[in-house]
Amino acid sequence: MAILKILQYPDKRLHTVATPVTEVNAQICTLIQDMADTMYAAPGIGLAATQVDVHKRIIVLDVSETQDQLYVFINPKIVSRDGVHEFEEGCLSVPGIFGKVTRAESITVTALNAQGESFTLDAKGLLAVCIQHEMDHLEGKVFVEYWSQFKQSRVLAKLKKNQRNTM
Ligand code: NI
Description:
By secondary structure, the chain is of the alpha+beta class. 29% of the residues lie in helices and 26% in strands.
């Protein structure tokens, strides 16, 4: 078990576009286990490899209340999306900041699982929100970047202030 360091916004490495996983080997399996451990320890409901400074297309998430339903998506692709849904989001890389983002209400996603097998999942509600949020990380996008420049500058000021308070 290893807890990885989570990059904190506005770290520029969060803007890296991740590359596809070419082989689900032992190294990838260890990374997935470490990502899950890191997410549960935080605690959080989703984590993208980008957030632990590994720029491969892998996300883990668990939106269950019991925290025992881990989803692993390797090379995820959204193949269809439907509806519009506004949801209050947060992010382990942007602690203490929450706000609304509009996304598709339901999606169909294809990916490989931790065994390297392909699967298709229909997701809606929180699960769909979470998948879209984590997939944005793989494109180098953080949820606050959906907001206006004015609101983003306030986020940065608040994060600076919070950092000072914890030093
Ligand atoms: Ni996030």
